UniProtKB/TrEMBL annotation:
UniProt key word Cell inner membrane: no
Cellular location(s): Cytoplasm, Nucleoid
GO MF: DNA binding
Quaternary structure and partners: Homodimer.
Major location category of this protein: cytoplasm
Signal peptide boundaries: none
Job description of the protein: Binds to DNA and alters its conformation. May be involved in regulation of gene expression, nucleoid organization and DNA protection.
SUPFAM superfamilies in alphabetical order: YbaB-like (SSF82607)
The entry's keywords: Cytoplasm, DNA-binding
Gene Ontology cellular component terms for the protein in this record: bacterial nucleoid; cytosol
Protein name, entry field: Nucleoid-associated protein zobellia_4052
Family membership: Belongs to the YbaB/EbfC family.
Keyword DNA-binding: yes
Length: 108
């Protein structure tokens, strides 16, 4: 039993290291999101760091419209990045978890 516990602890430590490596890798994954008409484009990492915002010149004349476009497009980009982030981290965590009955449903 003690050997099993040591093996599980080692596996959990290995999984934690893989999760940290995955977080670093997700800094290099870029996602793009655009407004419906393409007037605003946002580039964001899978760790939800905004890298670039492109705004069409036509939006510079209407502050309120620009703010609305930015909010909508940034929220869509953040949602997409969160989905990628959570899927990647869940896959790594599930891969490294010991086989404990009933725990497999937590990572579906």
């Amino acid at each position: 039993m003690f050997g099993d516990m040591m093996g599980m602890m080692g596996k959990l430590k290995e999984t934690q290291q893989k999760v940290e490596e995955t977080k670093k890798r997700l800094d290099t994954v870029s996602l793009e999101e655009s407004s419906a008409d393409g007037l605003v484009k946002v580039t964001i990492t899978a760790n939800r760091e905004v890298k670039q915002i492109q705004i069409d010149d036509s939006l510079l004349e209407d502050k309120e419209q620009l703010e609305d476009f930015l909010i909508l497009t940034l929220n869509k980009a953040i949602t997409k990045a969160t989905q990628v982030n959570e899927a990647e981290l869940a896959a790594v965590a599930k891969e490294g978890m010991p086989n404990i009955p009933g725990m497999d449903s937590l990572f579906k």
